Amino acid sequence: MASPAVQRRRPAFAAALAALAITAGMAAAPAQAVDKEKYIALGDSYAAGQGAGPYLDSCYRSDNAYSELADVDKTVQLVVNAACSGKTTWDVVNTQLRQLNKSTELVTITAGGNNLGFGQIITSCGAALSDHAAAPACDAATSAAAAMIGSGQLTRDVISMIQSVKAAAPNARIVVTGYPYLYNPVAPNPADPLSLFINQATLLADGLDASIAAAAAATGAQYVDVRAAFAGHGVNSADPWINLDLANPASPDNFHPNAAGYQAYFTALSSSGVYSAP
């Protein structure tokens, strides 16, 4: 039989064991899942993931799109990538906003390039490099784009789009991205038609990005510039992050980012605080 002193110690010892068991049980309990932001991506081919297939549908959506990379990285909860190739800011408003609601917490948008007739500029000016007969079409396309930028029309288009997104997702952070340079910038040389084309493309990209940045500033949206993220990786570089298949000039992937390019978009968005750590 235990001594009275030992008997007195038993209740305290049992209580200590019980407390230890409770503590161990608490430590073993699984951590609760982090409530990640509900995220919807909108925009054109550069948001869809065109250029870095394989493709999921006729919109050229790809699992390599920057929104999909964020979802895989578990920094956000991607509800849907609603972006689609060829869409303008007006198309985003008319066909993609149905995905938004009051529970949407983050919206990213890449749009505006098609307002300028991006495809027509690339097609006509690319042809003009080898066929002088195509030069007038190139001049007309670039002049029309420059006029939209210079008049402020593109900025107003982007402002209208952002305002519509705000109305559809009143509780969301709204982020608009710019576009990269297609070519590494070079000094224009009148004796080198390609350098003139590259210089024109650089000026249009600067005007396009400046218009989107101005629209973001006017509406309180966040603007993310991706030009620095692509620096040194244009079509004319040793390690291009923009596609151009000279053997297939009609390829729909031409002048769109490849997988490394979309990783650059993701990096730019992450470093700007758009995709927060879980």
Characterize the structure shown.
Helix 7 packs across helix 8 (about 195-220). Strand 4 (about 175), helix 8 and strand 5 form a beta-alpha-beta unit. The protein has about 280 residues and is of the alpha/beta class. The model is unreliable at about 1-10 and about 15-35 (pLDDT under 50). It has a 5-stranded parallel beta sheet, sandwiched between helices. It is globular, with a radius of gyration of 26 Å. It has helices at about 5-30, 45-50, 65-70, 90-95, 120-130, 135-150, 155-170, 195-220, 260-270; strands at about 40-45, 75-80, 105-110, 175, 220-225. Helix content is about 45%, strand content about 10%.
Task: List the defining traits of the structure above.
five-stranded parallel β-sheet, globular, 278 residues, 5 strands, 45% helix, single chain, alpha/beta
